[in-house]
Specification:
Blueprint (H helix, E strand, L loop, with lengths): L10 H24 L1 H13 L3 H8 L2 H14 L8 H5 L8
Helix pairs in contact: 1-4
Length: about 100
């Protein structure tokens, strides 16, 4: 069968992929909305963490892990690709 759109073999396969991405995006946005204050605190901790030990402490924070997951959901990548350096580049105003 010939590929139709962006490597999918059928329009239903493409629609299913789009629906999964849309649901993941919505889940990430909802989580950011519900936990905004916690995530602002985490972003402030990330920006202040200068030593490796401080970064490890931040990475052990449950809110840090949840923020990584939400950001990964929104931009549709693996949360393994979201690191502390990427999060430190975020401005809380950008996610509001």
């Amino acid at each position: 069968m010939a590929k139709t759109h962006k490597g999918f073999e059928s329009t239903s396969e493409a629609a299913n992929d789009a629906a999964i991405r849309y649901a993941r995006l919505n889940r990430g946005i909802a989580d950011l909305y519900e936990n905004y204050d916690d995530y602002v605190d985490v972003l402030e901790q990330v920006k202040k963490a200068n030593t490796a030990a401080e970064k490890v402490t931040v990475k052990q924070n449950a809110s840090y892990k949840a923020l990584r997951k939400s950001v990964a959901d929104i931009i549709n990548i693996s949360e393994d690709m979201i690191d502390i350096d990427f999060l430190s580049s975020l401005d809380p105003e950008q996610i509001q």
